[in-house]
Each structure stands twice: as C-alpha cells, then as structure tokens.
Design brief:
Layout lengths: L1 H19 L22 H8 L1 H4 L15 H6 L2 H10 L19 H12 L22 H11 L1 H4 L15 H4 L4 H10 L20 H13 L24
Helix pairs in contact: 2-6, 5-6, 7-11, 10-11
Length: 247
C-alpha cells in the first residue's frame, strides 16, 4: 500500500509540472532566447534598427535625410543604387557603410532584405507619365546654375541661397559639408515632400527643370562648399585652404 501511495504522489507532482506550466519553473522559453544580430531577417526590425533614425519611420524622411519611401526617389533610384548606398555608404555624406564587407555590421543577405523592403514602397504611377532627369548625370556649369537658382529656387531659399521666408540657407558651409553632390541632385529631382520641398516639376519658374538645369544648379551649390567645412572662421591662419570655398 505504501509503495503504491508514493507512486501515485510522484505521478501527480509530475503531472502538475507538465500540465500546469508546460516546462520546469525558471527555465527560459523560446521567446526569451536572444537572436544573434546577423540572424535577423525581418525587414521592419532591420529598418528600424539601421535606417529609421536618419530616414524616418517607414521611410517618411527626417531632418537628417531624404525619405526612402519618396515615390519619385524610388522611380529614379534603382535596386543597384539603393544596394550600393546601403552596402558601401555614400562618400561626402552622413551615410555610412552597413555591409560587413565594407566595415559595417550587416550581412549581404540582410542588405538584400533592406533593399527589397524599400523597393516595396515604390509606386508604379509615381511620375504620372512624366520623364524625370536621370538619377546621376554629368557635371554642370556653376555660372549657368546661378541663373537657374535665381529663377527656380531663390523665391524660397533667398537671394544667393542664404535663406528666405519659406526655406533655410543652402549655402551654409556646415550643411554643404554634410551632403554630397549626388545628395543635392537627388533632392532637386525627387524633392522632400516631408518638408514641403517640391520635386523637379514644381520649381518657381513654372516649368520642370531639365536634366542640364539640374546639373547646373547642383554645380553652383557645390561651388559654395568650403574646402574645410566646419571652420568657425572665414580665414584660418595656417589652414591649407584658409576656409575658402571651392570657387
């Protein structure tokens, strides 16, 4: 009798553990196991951890960078452009390299997941039948660019680009030191809908900018970039360029 009673008690206790909790108390469940960073395959998580701080939640843009969900941007920037920027970064800008092969922390597979997820934001009708200037193009002429800026951009950004009633300065040395020529070109073409900046079709002159005009205004803006961005003085004794611009 006593042995039978002990057996019944043991079985009852075991059943309580297995049916009541599903596992021994204190033992971590599958949801508690941390996933290795290089094993993350979810686009939303990869984007929020690596891209959202600069490009905004869901690609909507922020003060730091263009929105990657901008439909015009996605119409002119193909998979190769987005993959190259994500993999190796963009020289002359705040965009760092993210791929392990270029010093970052993401695998090639994770870069591919990001590219595919960003491309999924594209809209087939983004251009409404219009033909946008190419994402990249030849260098323009700064002298012609000055005239393009005066006609198409100065009403918002002020005479000489120093800032106006609707928008800030585009010739600030610190700003130009943080944006590449391609970044300027991309913004002129794709605009910044998150801050009310029109695309290449909505300039003040009343007509869309041509590819040549885009290149020229970018060349003019680039000519205002200091050789040593961030210098607090107009001319610094001993500096290789004295803080001068590239003109």
């Amino acid at each position: 009798m006593r042995r039978s009673l002990v057996a019944v008690v043991v079985v009852a206790v075991a059943a309580a553990f297995t049916s009541g909790c599903g596992r021994m108390p204190g033992r971590p469940g599958p949801e508690s196991v941390e996933i290795r960073p290089d094993k993350v395959k979810n686009f939303d998580l990869l984007y929020s951890e690596n891209c959202a701080a600069c490009h905004g939640p869901n690609g909507r843009g922020s003060a730091a960078a263009i929105g990657l969900a901008n439909p015009v941007y996605l119409a002119i920037a193909d998979d190769a452009v987005i993959s190259r920027a994500t993999t190796a970064g963009v020289a002359g800008s705040l965009m760092p390299a993210f791929a392990k092969s270029a010093g970052g922390e993401l695998t090639d597979e994770q870069v591919g997941i990001l590219v595919d997820g960003i491309r999924a934001w594209a809209r087939p009708d983004a251009l409404g039948g219009a033909v946008a200037p190419a994402y990249a193009g030849p260098a323009g002429d700064p002298a012609r660019g000055a005239a393009v800026f005066a006609a198409s951009c100065a009403s918002c950004h002020g005479a000489g680009g120093a800032g106006g009633p609707k928008a800030g300065s585009l010739v600030d040395g610190s700003f130009l030191g943080l944006v590449s020529d391609q970044g300027l070109r991309t913004t002129v073409i794709a605009g910044r809908p998150d801050i009310g900046h029109p695309d290449w079709r909505g300039d003040a002159s009343g007509g869309p900018l041509t590819g040549e005009q885009v290149a020229d205004v970018v060349a003019w803006l680039a000519s205002k970039r200091p050789m040593s961005p961030g210098s607090p003085y107009g001319s610094t004794p001993g500096a290789p360029d004295g803080g001068r611009t590239r003109e």
